[in-house]
Design goal:
heterodimer, A: alpha/beta, Rossmann fold, globular, B: alpha/beta, Immunoglobulin-like, 2 domains, 11 helices
Chain lengths: 311, 379
């Protein structure tokens, strides 16, 4: 049986097009919504419900996680300790990344004979890729150890919520994952093992929701008010979508007219396609194929940003 | 590079028609690379440029162009400079100070308005302009009886958009709050930076002096007591505030910055964040204070602080205009703060002692002290 369809969309706040995407792909029925990335505003989903005009249940993963942590204090403590461990790892990774990317940008900004300079640029990028890989491996180890030692899903507080979620999802025809805080969203999805529960269902996700479905979560902003704006890997994603790096609001968050920055990002993730998920953009993954929406762009190795090719 | 004014001067005799043609549709002052040409058209015995750039003579004379009523002055203004100025006209023994009639750009302050020159490279930051996509916050007027000040105090309390009583917010107390709102677009800036996720949603207490500002803001014990023992506890009682040092900040400009630092020094560790803009941190290494008697309490405070620095807060953002007379004092303050164990971010800009300079530094200052979830949130 082929994997069910997955739709990755751009932001939905101002001109939502999710209803149009559902209609286009004949997706209808009961919707299970995940808005945990909105944190304490998780239940403020009326605008989305009005737009969908389909029966919808909010899975309330944020609220459920709060309840779990309230009733299982030990798990809360263990969770906090793991997050602190990850935070420290991220800090060490950033220190190393800053130097490597500074060197890489320096080399990419230079002009010299290609046969002299290009191997240096490629090796600089390879150093960044090695560091990314190392960081992702360390993060995965932290998660594996946590799962093995504490089996969170078999703890009663989590198991109870999972049973309820299973019952809701058994009645659902598709799942929607909204954007918001990427780490909060990922942690809630992971805590309840939602990726396993929705494996057979179509999923429509946007912004941070799209990011967490990828193989790894890439945080990015080229012009933050503080710091150099070095794109970084936060964590492993749920891996439902392979071969893509979703970049929501790319036109706002990235300097897409800077070929050096575009080229470095695209080449850094050379085995994947960096997709600019701006409002109205979409990528449909279905039957082993990748179908881009009209106007959906990707970052190319040469520093340009052009329409995504179907694959 | 040949300047446009030189081309005018090198041509045929300059009559009214040529001046009309020269000025038609032209933006004045004329910025050409690092050279800026100021112009005045009219009858006068003498025309001078009055500016507030420390380090240059404060009044620069214009040159009359023979055969015309046009005057000009060419100045070097480094890239990204922003200069506020007026024109001094001397006629028949009388002197008048006016805004530049050929320049529409102006900046207001509590004393009126000045003309403004944007040198090459300076741009008004987009985050200072109203953004229709940014959800607006609002300001609630609050009255408070202060025993320390012996007066009723009016405080404007800024609530961020989508304020929720379930959340816990950081608190920033801002001196000269009304002037920040009027002259630094402070509410627009807060709305925009919160919308952009560059700063955390904040509750801001906008305070103003109840009496003599130069007295209340100059290391005044009752003012510090009012803020710390009356205002902040009342705010924490009434609003959903985090109530810990890292989520409490003081901010101010000029004497307001002195008030912020001196208050934090009187209550070390209570305020975790300080945002100090163009602080009037006058001090003396030897001899008497030469800035006048209103500075005496300031000099006393800064001299004591320099002799025995206190770790008043954890993190401090300090900014100052390079063209201010206070640049030396602010530069001197930075190592003192650092030596006392504070994490300091110091920023200079090619601007003067004015509200637009303070506005333009708000993004950097607020985002360093109260960083938002920009990096993590993708809506």
């Amino acid at each position: 049986m082929s994997a069910p369809i997955t739709c990755l969309l751009g932001p939905q706040r101002f001109d939502p097009d999710v209803a149009g995407v559902l209609a286009e792909h004949r997706l209808a029925g009961r919707v299970a919504m995940v808005t945990a990335g909105w944190q304490e505003r998780e239940r403020e989903d009326q605008e989305l419900r009005d737009h969908l005009a389909l029966p919808a249940v909010n899975l309330e993963l944020y609220r459920r996680a709060e309840e779990v942590f309230k009733s299982d204090e030990e798990l809360f403590r263990l969770h906090r300790a793991r997050q602190e461990q990850l935070r420290r790892l991220q800090k060490f990774y950033r220190i190393r990344l800053e130097y490597l990317l500074e060197c890489t940008r320096d080399l990419f900004g230079r002009e010299a004979e290609p046969d002299l300079l290009e191997p240096e640029k490629e090796d600089a990028l390879e150093s960044v890729r090695r560091l990314d890989h190392h960081h992702l491996t360390r993060v995965r180890e932290v998660h594996r150890e946590f799962e093995e030692r504490h089996s969170p899903r078999s703890r009663p507080a989590v198991a109870r919520q999972r049973e309820q979620l299973k019952a809701i999802l058994n009645e659902a025809d598709l799942v929607m994952i909204a954007g918001g805080h990427a780490a909060v969203l990922l942690n809630r999805l992971r805590l309840f093992g939602l990726d396993g529960l929705v494996r057979t269902l179509p999923v429509v996700a946007w912004s941070a929701g799209a990011m967490v479905l990828a193989e790894q979560i890439v945080l990015f902003h080229d012009s933050p008010p503080q710091g150099a704006g070095n794109a970084e890997i936060l964590d492993a994603g749920l891996g439902r979508c392979t071969g893509v790096v979703p970049l929501p609001q790319a036109s706002t968050r990235l300097r897409l007219n800077d070929p050096v920055r575009v080229s470095i990002l695209a080449r850094r993730f050379r085995d994947q396609t960096c997709i600019a998920l701006d409002p109205g953009s979409r990528i449909i993954l279905s039957g082993g194929r990748r179908l881009p929406g009209r106007g959906t762009r990707q970052l190319h190795h040469d520093g340009s940003v052009r329409q995504v090719e179907p694959a | 590079m040949s300047l446009i004014i030189r081309e005018l001067l090198a041509g045929e005799p300059i009559g009214p028609d040529r001046v009309d043609a020269f000025l038609a549709g032209r933006t004045v002052p004329i910025v050409e690379g690092s050279r800026t040409t100021f112009l005045y058209r009219g009858q006068a015995d003498e025309v001078l440029l009055q500016h507030w750039i420390h380090g240059l003579p404060s009044a620069q004379p214009f040159t009359p162009i023979p055969g015309s009523d046009l005057w000009y002055l060419v100045m070097d203004l480094p890239s990204c400079s922003r200069v506020e100025y007026k024109l001094i006209l001397r006629r028949s023994g009388r002197e008048q100070m006016i805004k530049d009639p050929l320049n529409r750009l102006e900046a207001r302050d509590p004393f009126g308005a000045n003309s403004v020159c944007h040198a090459e490279g300076y741009e008004v930051p987009d985050w200072t302009k109203p953004d229709p996509e940014a959800r607006p916050g609002w300001i609630e007027p609050v009255k408070l009886r202060s025993a320390a000040l012996g007066a009723e105090v009016r405080v404007g309390v800024y609530h961020p958009a989508r304020f929720s009583p379930e959340r816990r917010y950081p608190l920033l107390v801002v001196h000269d709050g009304r002037d920040y709102l009027r002259f630094s677009e402070f509410q627009t800036v807060l709305d925009n930076l919160i919308h952009r996720l560059e700063i955390a949603p904040l509750i801001v207490a906008l305070v103003d002096p109840v009496g003599n500002r130069l007295e209340e803001y100059a290391d005044h014990e009752p003012h510090a007591r009012f803020l710390t023992e009356e205002l902040v506890p009342a705010m924490e009682d009434r609003f959903p505030l985090a109530g810990r040092p890292g989520a409490r900040g003081l901010m101010g400009a000029s004497f307001g910055a002195v008030a912020a630092l001196s208050t934090a020094c009187r209550y070390p560790g209570y305020y975790g964040r300080l945002l100090l803009q163009s602080g009037s941190f006058a001090f003396t290494d030897i001899g008497a204070n030469r800035r006048g008697p209103v500075f005496d309490p300031v000099v006393g405070f800064v001299n004591r602080f320099r002799a025995e620095p206190v770790q008043a807060a954890d993190e401090v953002f300090v900014s100052c205009g390079i063209y201010e007379s206070l640049i030396y004092e602010n530069r001197s303050l930075v190592p003192v703060l650092q030596d006392a164990g504070m994490k300091v971010r110091y920023v200079e800009a090619r601007d003067g002692h004015n509200w637009v300079n303070w506005r333009d530094r708000l993004r950097e200052g607020l985002s360093s002290l109260f960083p938002g979830p920009l990096w993590m949130v993708y809506e």
